[in-house]
Write a structure and sequence with these properties.
Blueprint lengths: L1 E6 L5 H11 L3 E7 L3 H11 L2 E3 L2 H7 L4 E4 L3 H13 L3 E5 L6 H14 L3 E4 L6 H11 L6 E9 L10 H7 L2 H4 L3 H17 L4 E7 L11 E8 L2 E8 L11 E5 L2 E5 L6 E4 L7 E2 L12 H11 L9 H20 L3 E2 L8
Helix pairs in contact: 4-5, 5-11, 9-11
């Protein structure tokens, strides 16, 4: 039985994960912290946990094995370091941190303490994405030469995000950026998993529609490899849903297209250029939800699935930081030739 705590409740993803966490017979949901009284009141009422205004108070009165972090990107990284130092395993929401320094500190602390650090990506639990990655990595479509992912909606507020979520998503300091940090991160981590660390990054951002925001509402991130070019797109102003959340992987012998959620997986080859639907196997229980996967890895001392590994996510953070620099200067950014951590 894992005694679990929550740090921060301002990231709306927490309310999607809580029912699964509470229903898991291997988890005892013990306590939660937040600086927002209404959120503490809600979680106390709905899940009956002890509530605190900060993690120091929680640590003083509760014996925990692990924590899930659902605050803003900057505070999440800072709290993650403290949690690891307290001897707690950590599950943190994507993209890992607000900047590369925060990501590096998390990885260094996890390495020093020997505690586990996992990053939750919603797309990591989509069966089509899991199978597409497996097929691509097995050589089914030959050598991968492009990964493309577009994440887009009308904007956090327009899509129903809570006031607490919007409060920091629109803040470049606490988020680490705007649409680029929020949504280009998906393409960055997919490209990192399939192709490694790019040699250079170029990005363009802008306030194309929501001109009153402090953060950009649209971004395009270009990653260059010796024999590949990968693209991550982000928008907080897109009206339709026809073109978003599709994972596209292009190889020398085929193309894979994974539709969002439990959608189809299509494979195009020279013999079937129009594409055909691929049967997607049912994911094992430990690959169906972040909580199940986190517990499975803790129980078996096993590796996290590739998208959730902190080393890959650290390198995705490096890509994002280079993108922010490129968008600011208008120049391509060559990445430092430093070894990433797997």
């Amino acid at each position: 039985m894992i005694r679990m705590g929550l740090i921060g409740l301002s990231h709306d993803h927490v309310w999607d994960l809580l029912p699964d966490m509470a229903a898991n017979e291997h988890v005892e949901l013990v306590a939660a912290t937040s600086t927002k009284p209404p959120l503490l009141e809600r979680i106390g009422k709905e899940f009956g946990v002890a509530t605190f205004t900060d993690s120091t108070e929680m640590a003083a009165s509760q014996q925990l094995d692990a924590v899930c972090l659902f605050g803003d990107n900057r505070a999440g990284a800072e709290e993650g370091v403290k949690a690891l130092e307290r001897g707690w395993h950590v599950l943190i929401e994507k993209p890992l941190a607000a900047d590369l320094a925060g990501a590096d500190q998390l990885l260094q602390t996890a390495d020093t303490t020997g505690k586990r650090l996992m990053v939750n990506w919603p797309i990591a639990w989509w069966p089509g994405v899991q199978h597409a990655l497996a097929l691509a990595q097995s050589g089914e479509i030959g050598e991968v030469w492009q990964v493309r992912y577009r994440a887009a909606h009308q904007g956090p507020k327009e899509m129903g995000a809570s006031e607490y979520f919007c409060d920091w998503l629109y803040d470049p300091n606490r988020n680490g950026g705007g649409a680029l940090m929020d949504y280009c991160c998906y393409g960055a981590v997919l490209s990192r998993v399939l192709l490694g660390r790019p040699h250079s990054v170029t990005a363009v951002t802008g306030n194309l529609v929501k001109t009153g925001l402090d953060a950009e509402d649209n971004a395009v991130l270009l990653m260059q490899y010796p024999k590949a070019i990968c693209i991550a797109e982000a928008s907080w102003t897109q009206i339709d849903k026809a073109t978003n959340y599709h994972t596209q992987i292009y190889g020398t012998e085929g193309t894979l297209l994974a539709e969002p959620g439990n959608g189809r997986l299509l494979l195009a080859t020279p013999k079937n250029p129009e594409g055909k639907e691929v049967d997607v196997p049912e994911s094992p229980a430990h690959l169906q939800t972040p909580i199940a996967h986190f517990l499975h890895a803790l129980d078996n001392d096993s590796a996290f699935q590739p998208l959730c590994r902190p080393g890959h996510c650290r390198d995705a953070q490096e890509i994002l930081e280079a993108g922010i620099q490129s968008a600011t200067t208008g120049a391509k950014v060559d990445l430092p030739q430093l070894a990433g951590m797997d």
